[in-house]
Amino acid sequence: MRYSGLRVVWEGLRGQTGWSPVWRDPDPKPEYDVLIIGGGGHGLSTAYYLAKNHGITNVAVLEKGYLGGGNVGRNTTIVRANYFLPGNSEFYSHSLKLWEGLEADLNYNVMHSQRGLINLFHSDGQRDAFARRGNAMINQGDDAIVLDREGVRRYLPYLDFDNPRFPVYGGLYHPRGGTARHDAVAWGYARGADQRGVDLIQQCEVTGIDIEGGRVTGVQTARGAIKAKKVAMIVAGRSSQVAAMAGMRLPIESHVLQAFVTEGLKPCIDHVVSFGMGHFYISQSDKGGLVFGGDIDFYASYAQRGNLPMKEHVMEAGMALMPMIGQARVLRSWGGIMDMSPDGSPIIDRTHIDGLFLNCGWCYGGFKAVPGSGYATAHLIATGDPHESAAGFRLDRFATGVGLMDEEGTGAQHNLH
Amino acid sequence: MRVDGKGLIDRSQPVTFRFDGKPVTGFAGDTVASALLANGVKLMGRSFKYHRPRGVVTAGSDEPNALISVGPGIDIAPNTRATMQEIYPDLIARSQNRWPSLKFDAMAVNDLLSPFLAAGFYYKTFMWPRAFWERLYEPIIRRAAGLGALSGAPDPDRSEKAFAHCDLLVIGAGPAGLMAALTAAKAGADVILATEETRVGGRLLSETESVGGDSGVAWAEALAARLGDMPNVRIMPRTTVTGVYDTGTYGALERVGLHVAPGGDLPPTCFWRIVAKQAVLAAGALERGIAFPNNDRPGILTAAAARTYLNRYGVSPGRKVAVFGNTDDAHRTAADLTAAGVKVAALIDNRADATTNGDWPFYPGADVIETQGRLGLEGLTIRKPDGHRLRIGADALAVSGGWNPAVHLTCHMNGRPVWNDDIAAFVPSEGAVPGLIPCGAAAGVFTTAGCLADGVRAAGDALDALGIKRKPVDLPEADETPYSLTPKWAVVAPGRAWLDFQNDVTSKDIKLAAQENFRSVEHVKRYTTQGMATDQGKGSNVTALALLADATGRSIPETGTTTFRPPYTPVSISSLGAGHAGKGFAPERFTTSHAASVKRGAPMIEAGLWYRPSYYPEPGEDTWLEACNREVAMVRNAVGVVDVSTLGKIDIQGPDAGAFLDFVYTNTFSTLKEGRVRYGLMLREDGHVMDDGTTARLGPDHYLMTTTTAAAGQVMAHLEFVAQGLRPDLNVRLTSATEQWAQFAVAGPKALTLLNSILDDAVDDTVLPFMSVAPVALSGVSARLFRISFSGERGYEIAVPARYGASLYRVLLAQAESLGGGAYGMEALNVLRIEKGFITHAEIHGRTTAYDIGMQGMMSKKKDFIGKAASTRPGLMDPERERLVGVRPVDPAQALTAGGFLFNASDDATRVNAQGYLTSVAWSPTFDTHLALGFVKRGPERIGEEMRFVDHLRGHDFPVTLADPVAFDPDGGRMRG
Amino acid sequence: MRLTCPYCGERDLREFTYKGDALALLRPNEDADPSDWTDYLHNRDNPAGVTRELWYHGCCGTWFVAERDTVTHVTKRTLTLAEARE
User: Fold this and answer.
1) I need a labelling partner for A195 at 20 to 30 A (CA). Which of A242, B15, B789, B841 fits?
2) For B653, what's the count of Cα atoms within 13 Å in the CB-facing half-sphere?
3) Residue B134 DSSP label
4) How far apart are CA B501 and CA B400, in angstroms?
5) CB-based contact B370:B359 (threshold 8 Å)
6) Beta strand B741-747 with B795-801: parallel, antiparallel or unpaired?
7) Distance from CA of A380 to the nearest CA of B (A)
């Protein structure tokens, strides 16, 4: 079924009775060409691009819970391509280009809104670091503008310019940055994959990975054994547990990142604003809620919930940066499990087991990567070779030290990000 | 309509406030909602999506409809529940989400379009043409959406935060909570009793029943007075426990000053972090509605709310009130209304076998299938069991659909409530939160007598866990009538039956979601927005779940469960972030010379938490650069003084101090002679540079390490880890001494002259050669004098106990000025170090190795050290790595900018061609050119090469030449003297 | 969340800093096989369950080991490093 404004009107006239299911609920077949473990954003987009770009449709996505129930449905919805290290730059640049055509491609309104992102800086040193970032973005072919203090004031007049603890020196403006409706991204890819013949199987937890002679042969699931020539583990948040089924120990630690939304408010914040000095970033959803977040809680966790110190720190940063949001009330807070890699950058790679692929380590930046990650992972699965945009996301970079991508410069080592 | 002789309001104290500009008079003790109802105002808000006219449906914090913006003042609070806002004189309340007025809202056109705006319609349209999303569709959607508006003015940040500790936190002060508090308090436990309400009593405030032979309210008041007299009890009214966190930590929001006119001494709120060894959840239950067509008209409210307005506020929701329900509470409501003299238009009990002995029109087995009235209810249509329809005139309808225990807090740590068929509701799961014991209505106990007993039981369990001996408590007599209902979720009839009032979710939306195969509760929630409004689905989630179960042919437990995340009720950012606006955001650290620098007009800039002087303007200087150039020349030609106290200082002592330093630094310190100073490079274990600085050997077992300002805390924790975790075999002790010493750099050719003019005993180069330290005295004050340089000039750093810092700085400056020198700031310091090729964290930015900064020679081959193994990884030794170089523009007038990139002269400025980048730049008055430090692939091999410098952001594109990083005095003669 | 410093007793999370898996205590020799170093520096069991991890109590400067469940956040016990080494 094709979605359009006309169709919405037509269904409105006949009482919405004609809408068909967005996806089927098939029973798993005994065997597939490709099994994708994980029905989150990355798994669903991988399935979609396997079908669309490579014509591989004998594919099943195995999801333990419900589609899009992981981090794709619990983030702050920011979409950007403002990375500066080789390896990351080209990947996020490619991903943003995919975002820019996503509605037309999926025939699903994911509400990708390029409202512009501004990273603030508060010292000459930070300005210089952001200048390097901005120039790297332009080197890559993306957009960046450096704003001075007055430039920031023009866009964000509500910041505290009068009595701040850390005065705003300026900002790096990324006009093509923005937000998207997170659930819709999962649903849009799911619908697209389903329409192309991919089986989306919910409530189907993988309990084992079958390996014979160094080659993957299938998986064991809550709904029985399923054979496959290729298996991809795309389960950020549970990567270590799933990889352990294949005898692997990953360079991943799981941490909780909290996010927050306020009650609905009339439009007051038109951009995505990032306040690195206070670990705070914010945008306003189309429904009017202020959506914001901060840093990880800084302890290993699978609980999908956090504690008060970081909650309070985030609110404190909000009060410090833009005290006009003080009367907004926080409606809901939640936590996601972050696959923290040592250098803060992800992994899309083969494993030492033939036919077994790994996509993990998105730290707190996985949402914007959904299109690019699926595109690159599908390419890797289909061709055996990394896609040019994701060639840097190697699993062995920590062993070799080659191509480490420590964007924050806090150290290519656990617990420093 | 106000009812005589009822309510806990103070009729001797009329209070006048404004609603949408019109004066409204209520009494002390009223909420905005009760006062409006008393004045016959039913229309209090507009819904989110269709802008349907809405009235109040609850009397508590779960209110979805009656949201108002409250002033006066600039800190207008949008989305305030009219049901929770107590009135005070001159309070200004405004309705929201309507234009031009609440009665006539132009956006109500959405309701006419509602056939086309079903759940999730926006995912299916607004896609073409692409550019219209940001330019047209989204702006329209954004303007239509949202509820209240922020004022746009900065919040005055007057709220507070606090910690509290107790043995037992009792959440809720109804019958169960009060008995729990009493039981625990009598046994001697430290008790905090928190209630969201303005006073204790809970549901008793809303009912007419008696407890212990007295009215429920009087019993509660008497018990509260008794508890209040006990030193181990703290009663916290107006305090909502909003969240449950690990290890018995509870977040609670106290509304301290929101019930009085702003401007007084009271903070608006206080956010409490309550650490409780045990807690009792006695938060009661919330009544749910029934989904029937047009069940959202102003005047339709829960039966529980109707009784609250009647019994607590002395207000009837209407003059002719109909009651509809499937519980005995419907009958109780009719009885209370009748007793108060309010006409009951009809009692419609959905249960076919229901009977009544009341004197009102009674319709057992009937359903409400339609309602009438646009801005306020005028009547309803019922369908009797025989299919006959009947119109009943009524201006209010109280609906009783059964009670949902307030399980919310038990979900905050991932506990999932379990379905209880007996009461057709979810109850807390066993052990959902360690140490939190649900009781009373929150645990599904729905009689008053049962709640009283369950409170005693819960407190007893808590006392056992606390190891405190129980003491007997008398149980008062109370109502024991068992709770009885027949589940009724929705009435089957044509028309829109509303579930989530605020978000305008109807039963049809749930069915549509199921039709489109959104079968998971989470999918339905996200697709339809059911439960995503400001009440978080408190009144509607269970009903929606039941309808989803029906639509998908599953039982309710099979379909899923409802869960809630913190906070229980929304908490303002100004509450959780209290005290941190402006300078409150982070501590401020001041050096001992701060005041003197400010007095000299130096702009102070942030350096971590510290403040340091940027430059010292002199008369006649128009720009910072003029001052900076003068200060650089002053240091190069005479002498300058700068406060360097912000650098971290770590005192390291013990027989193995040298061995310890050998392990944390790449180079060797155990061989350092006493009285000597050495530059040290410290790696992280991953082989990249962590920090650098000088370390002095003050005695055989005594070293003093200097860190950079930025890394002081990180280095201290790191050293402690190495000492305690990795090298417990080494006998060494570490103490941070950063704040104990004030330290000043004295640099320039006349530095020694200056120092000798103030030292008690003069020093010379034999006593104090380059890279050494000596004890000295100034007017009898012991001090340390280091001979080190960060400027390339003859340099010293003199350290005195911090209490002498301010006076020493004054003396140093006076002497410097007499020698043609003076103070210099960070700008000049930066120029001096760039001229000399010294690095800072601009260069050691976390990704650089010793090899990258040309210090591979400092990595000892003779010993192990932190980071040694990882720094031998192939990627860290790759000759193609970007390595430190100096950079100069071919045309000295062309300004280099940090963050710009370097390319081969003939290459395009693209990522794949990038050869390196600049990290630090300065105008060098010494060389009359811009100078930079940066990193270039194979940089040191390419000195002299001409490259293309591009800074896209600043529009720079010109040729530069690679140079040695050390521009000034390459052989170090000036520094070494 | 609250943690129990082996020296100071139970304190709020705000006083502590986290360093991850306690295997950080088991530093290989400098000439150990590179794969041992990779396991030490980067690869982790990362259990969804009880883990032994390092915490730093900044107020007293003590590093210690906590046995904590990463799913429930319940700390079973905390140990001084000397106890942890036994």
Assistant:
1) A242
2) 6
3) I
4) 16
5) no
6) antiparallel
7) 22
Question: What CA–CA distance (Å, rounded) separates A227 from B2?
Answer: 73
- Lookup: tokens for B130: 């692409």
State how far Cα B121 lies from the chain centre: 33
Q: B721, B872, B876: best mutation site toward chain C, by most C Cβ within 10 Å?
A: B721
Task: For chain C, give the longest Cα–Cα distance.
Answer: 40
Instruction: Please report the pLDDT score of residue B561 as a whole number.
Output: 86
Half-sphere exposure of A243 (CA within 13 A, CB side): 31
User: What span, in angstroms and rounded, lies between the C-alpha atoms of B384 and B390?
Assistant: 8
**Residue with tokens 């790297």, as numbered in its chain:** A136
Residue at B51: amino acid letter: H
- How many angstroms separate the CA of residue A215 from the nearest CA in chain B? 29
Q: Which residues of chain B have pLDDT under 50?
A: none
Q: Which residues of B touch C61 (CB under 8 A)?
A: 720, 734
Is there a contact between C63 and B721 if contact means CB atoms under 8 Å apart?
yes
Query: In which band, very low, low, confident or very high, does the pLDDT at A416 lie, cut at 50, 70 and 90?
Result: confident
- According to the model, what pLDDT value does residue C26 have? 97
Task: Give chains near C: 3+ CB pairs under 8 A.
Answer: A, B
Locate the DSSP E strands across B821-881.
822-823
Tokens found for residue B544: 């929606």
Task: Give the nearest chain C residue to B725 (CA atoms).
Answer: C25
B47-92: pLDDT as tens digits? 999 999 999 999 999 999 999 999 876 568 999 999 999 999 989 9
- Name A283's Cβ contacts closer than 8 Å, sequence gap at least 6: A76, A77, A78, A115, A178, A179, A269, A271, A272, A273, A290, A291, A292
**What does each C-alpha distance from B653 to B103, B657, B698, B703, B730 come to in angstroms?**
78, 6, 10, 6, 11
Distances (CA, A) of A65 to A62, A202, B54: 9, 6, 37
Is the torsion defined by CA of A190, A195, A201, A202 positive or negative?
Answer: positive
Instruction: Please say whether the beta carbons of A373 and A79 come within 8 A.
Output: no
Give the count of alpha carbons within 13 A of B729, CB side only.
4
| Of B686, B695, B690, nearest in space to B710 by CA | B690
3-class state of residue B121 by DSSP: helix
Q: Which residues of C touch B (CB under 8 A)?
A: 1-3, 10, 12, 17, 19, 24-25, 27-30, 32, 34, 37, 41, 54, 56, 58, 61-63, 72-75, 81-82, 85
- Rounded CA-CA distance B142/B149 in Å is 12
Given a contact cutoff of 8 angstroms between Cβ atoms, the answer to whether C51 and C1 are in contact is no
Neighbours of chain A (3+ CB pairs under 8 A): B, C
Q: What is the pLDDT of residue B74?
A: 56
Q: How many whole angstroms separate alpha carbon A335 and alpha carbon A301?
A: 10
Which chain C positions have a beta carbon within 8 Å of A233's beta carbon?
none
pLDDT tens digit string along B508-563? 999 999 999 999 999 999 999 999 999 999 999 999 999 999 999 999 999 988 78
* Cross-strand bridge partners of residue B166: B276
DSSP-assigned letters across all residues of C20-63? EEGGGGSPPPTTS-HHHHHHHHT-B---SSEEEEEEEETTTTEE
Residues 6+ apart with CB under 8 A from B279: B168, B169, B170, B171, B248, B250, B433, B435, B436, B437, B462
Helix (H) or strand (E) holding A192: helix A182-195
State pTM to two decimals: 0.97
Q: How many Å apart are CA A170 and CA B195, to the nearest integer?
A: 46
Measure Cα distances from A392 to A95, B284, B499, B826 in Å.
Answer: 15, 56, 50, 39
User: b or e along C33-47 (b: 16 or more beta carbons within 10 Å of the residue's beta carbon)?
Assistant: ebeebbbbbbbbebb
Longest dimension (CA), chain A: 67
